[in-house]
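Inputs:
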Amino acid sequence: MTGTKGEELRKRAKEKRSERFRRAWYKFSRNRISVVGLVMVLAIVLLAIFAPYVTPYPKHAGAFVDFMTGSVGPSLKHWLGTDVFGRDILTRVIFAFRGALIMSTGVLVLVVPLGVVLGLIAGYLKGTWIETVIMRITDVFLALPPLILALAVSALMRPTLFNSMMAVCVSWWPWYTRLIYGMASSLRNEFYVKASELTGASKPHVIFREILPNCIAPIFTKMTLDVGWVILTGASLSFVGLGEQPPKAALGTMISDGAKYLPAQWWIAVFPAIAIMVVVLAFNLLGDGIKDMLATEEGS
Amino acid sequence: MGCNTMAKDILVVENLKKYFPTKKKGLYVKAVDGISFTVREGETLGLVGESGSGKSTTAYNVIGMYGVTAGKIYFKGVDISGDAGKRPLSLKKDLQMVFQDPGTSLNPQRTIGQILALPLKVHKIPGEGERLEDRLIQLLETVELPPEYIYKYPRSIGGGERQMVAIARALATNPSFVVLDEPTSALDVSVQAKIINMLIRLQKQFNLSYLFITHDLSLMRNLATRVAIMYLGKIAEIAPAVDFFRSPKHPYTQMLLSSIPVISGAEEEMKPKKVPSRGEIPSPVNVPPGCGFHPRCPMARQICLEVDPIMVETIPDHFVRCHLFAGAAEAREVVGA
Amino acid sequence: MADASVAKPMSSAVGAESIVQIKDLHVGFKVFGGLLKVLNGVNMVVGRGEKIGIVGETGCGKTTTVKSILRILPGEARIFHGEVLFQDKNVYKMHPHELQKLRGQGASMIFQDPTAALNPVFTLGEQISEIISHSGTQPEGKKEAIKILAVKAFREATLPDAERMMETYPFQLSGGMRQRACIAMALATPRDLMIADEPTTNLDVTIQDQVLRLLKNLVDQRGMSLILITHSLGVARETTDRIYIMYAGNMVEVARTAEIFERPLHPYTTGLLSCIPKLTGGGVAEGIPGRIPDYMNPPAGCRFEPRCPKAMERCKKEKPEFVEVGKDHQVACFLYYQVPQNGVQHHG
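Outputs:
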């Protein structure tokens, strides 16, 4: 066999891959609501990235005071109204998405590899002391309510976006460990895993090449759902003052500040709250769609 | 057992036991309860039984998926019944297995090329100057599959083709002994025919010895050199295939044979009619006292309820474990009848 | 179309009274990338009191065919052509209450996997009582009468300790016992037709033997019709009166059971028979080359043509219809179109 033959074979396989992508999209798009979720998520991400260009008053994102236009209700000029300092709420909500998305991305980047690797090891080595150590530590962290834990951690550290991110991480990784531990401990009994063990494959090969690829679907689904939940947790932290510090915009801070002016100047608190709801909803809808897509992809 | 061997014994199993603990203390599932058999070089031993008979447990013990409770397994004269997790690589290379359902024995997330490459990489098979890809294509050719299958995923090919990939994987390391765990029971009969013929061809080509686990006696008639029947963790009868089907002795064997749906009158005549099927295989946790088969046996006598029979050789190489054949003289009589 | 290719779903020997008639049924499934054209003009007749076998390999459309009788095809299924008559009424034009009657009193069905067919959280007694009270044969609220019927059904299905079975959960039973329980439920109230979809595929051979004998006895006693779906010609031979051989969404051959084995005509039937390992030995044939066609783009003519050792030019373009080649014996193959067999009428 010559190299060109190999190339030829590989090329043919590539065409198959684009076919797989089209099939996945077909499965995903069967559920219209998932598509709505996807559009919402894309809109939120794009708005956040291009915030300085799309918002009507980019200057209002930071320390800006204009009491002249303070506490103005929703109008054509300020769609969602302004806060007591005269800052445009729409602008600040969109800028707050930036922090929220950075936070959730950061949390997932740190949490997922750690949680997944620990879960894989514990699940594959079920019945050994390694499993016991990993899973008991996991259980301890799981037993503490995540928000309380995050509050405790961030209260110990200086309140910054990075530190509140760390705080959320501490309470978030065990969920991935649990999820993957359950999967790995059942996947290790699959015959394809047995077959690779019997032929003499190393433990890292079995864990990362045989078991891990079969955990990808639930990991992706959970990650998508978690973006929304991390944003919610982050907002809760910033609501009590632990997170992005003023004058920068954070959804939680905006709500807690606005709460003082309820019910008269309701828009100051209500619109950021609706924004949180929309973000969480969008990622949940997308997550459901991804679950459908990956589940049926496996089944076919 | 079987001292009049012409070919060398490649696998010898002596009084193998495998018990699994249950949740209740002191209570065990006696999956395999003291079996002995040999597999000779180049032959196919058909290990036949119903679900719950312990045939798969036997296969998993031989292949080293888990350790034995008691007894010995010798492969090419070497005791391999020790810690199953610590078998040397050379042994793993020489002893391979094909599983029942290729849908679950091939990783759905890996391409066929990756699946076949694993045993080659582990055992460093393509030597210097040889390319892995060439060897993969050669392997696929062995099982009559086209080379572009290297980049396909198991789900995109048919069930029979998947089993061919599983066979290619087993053969990748040039083994001398292959355990086949019901390799065709998940497949359609026209596909089964192809796989069986391929297995026969490969056996001749590579001088393989097979331990063929199955529930299908008709298939064994066409494939096995010798046949062993398992019931409740014990071997009931073991004999050369020709002799086995000409004069099945154990009542359980006769019940099995008379239950097989056949497609011609000539086959119908081969079925012993006197033992209609009744009852079900008991749980291996609560094995009946005496002979395990007595609750279903139409010929059960008082002794069967109390004493577990021992294996006797009725005619050379034909062993039966039944009180009907306890005395050699009595055995001859029944054979003559 | 050739003059001989007139569909003859009604076989003269089946008798005047038929319970099920399927006429030129085309069913497809809508999936990613298009339409799976599965059933490709199925013709079938089941006589009253007759035991029919449908034999074919995985994916040939056996289950789709019988599901169309009870109108329980999944949502993606589309019926393009043809009709299904149950006791001379078109199933797809029935009123809801007629359909209810068909499912409650006309026909019942048992499945390959009794574990999946039984609800794990209810006792067998609760499940069978539900079936009896919904069948429409019993007046509402007669608990005692229902219980008596249920126990009787379990006893007839040779389940040991029929009274105790009422309190038993499915997981407490073995696979063979579960299938007996399913049979008991299917036959607890009088029905005209029993559909058994691979009822013994998951069972051991000795248990299969018992379950098939039971099924056959019960159906015979009640004078019901039976449609037995199986991939095993041996199972069909021991249980049925007449066998339909199905391949890729078409009935390719039908004959009395003994006749199919003595004089198989369609190349697929002969191929299938030669693949079966026999107790008499002699090895197994090489199998049938190739595999079942892609239902998205099936062959235009005979769907067996790409795998057929006797394929002709004509087979590529036209679809063969049933022709009568003997008493009750029909084959859908061009090999038997032009050469009339001895003493055999040629339709057309």
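Remarks. Chain C touches chain B through 40 residues (CB under 8 Å). Residues 205-222 of chain C form the longest helix (18 residues).
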